[in-house]
Amino acid sequence: MKEGGIFKADAEYNERKNKNGVYRDKMRVLLFFSEMIIPLILFYVVGFGVLMKSDIYEEFVKGAKEGLETVIQILPTLIGLMVAVGVLRASGFLTMLGEVLGKVTEPFGFPSALVPLTIVRMFSSSAATGLLLDVFREFGTDSRNGKIASIMMSCTETIFYTVSVYFMAAKIKDTRYTIAGAFLASAVGIAASVWLAGYMG
Predict the structure, then answer these.
(1) Count of CB atoms within 10 A of residue 166's CB?
(2) pTM assigned to the model
(3) Which residues are CB-neighbours of 19 under 8 A, at least 6 positions away?
(4) How confident is the model at residue 181 (pLDDT cuts 50, 70, 90)?
(5) Secondary structure of residue 12 in the 3-state scheme
(6) pLDDT digits (tens, 9 = 90+) for 8-62
(7) Between the CA of residue 106 and those of 99, 126, 187, what are the distances in Å?
(8) Which of 117, 124, 133, 197 has the fewest CB atoms within 10 Å distance of its CB?
(9) What is the per-residue pLDDT across 72-126, written as a single tens digit (0 to 9) for each?
């Protein structure tokens, strides 16, 4: 029995080792593509410009100038958003709002501790990342809250930041159904994060 147990343990160990080897091979392939994709895109753009007989350097300078002008236009909006999020976070208002809204979200499986993160995520990605690190420190990365927060950060968007920046840059005043659609997409992303975290165990 003992020898059989040893052989079984060895077989399980070898199986895990093989699975880990396959996993590492897949990760190497993904890392290779992630490292090569930007140089490939750059070579493609330059090559296409050469084939089309365009003045690549002049087009690059023109695009850089337009990009700088766009940054200058949206800078006041960015500063306003960052300051507003900082004030809300430092004042404790987000924590209080999380406790109030948590009474509504908890029955649906969404922790009240993540409500502030959800709200800030709609305005600022960098501030949301700071709150995410706080969640990791308090609950742990492998906790249910940590998993939900991680997945939610990947499948939701900074709604108001994106709308204000890009619509202003494109000089569009009527957003129509953009914000409503973004809220719906974020709600689906949050629901998916709760389900996936529960599925992962």
Answers:
(1) 13
(2) 0.64
(3) none
(4) very high
(5) helix
(6) 455 555 565 555 566 677 778 878 888 888 888 888 888 888 888 888 888 888 9
(7) 10, 26, 15
(8) 133
(9) 877 887 788 778 877 887 888 888 888 888 888 888 889 988 999 998 898 888 8
Q: Are 114 and 94 in contact (CB under 8 A)?
A: no
Under DSSP, is residue 82 helix (H, G, I), strand (E, B) or coil? helix
Q: What is the 3-state secondary structure (H, E, C) of the chain?
A: CHHHHHHHHHHHHHHHHHHHHHHHHHHHHHHHHHHHHHHHHHHHHHHHHHHCCCCHHHHHHHHHHHHHHHHHHHHHHHHHHHHHHHHHHHHCHHHHHHHHHHHHHHHHCCCHHHHHHHHHHCCCHHHHHHHHHHHHHHHCCCCHHHHHHHHHHHCCCCHHHHHHHHHHHCCCCCCCCHHHHHHHHHHHHHHHHHHHHHHHC
Per the listing, tokens 């700071």 go with 130
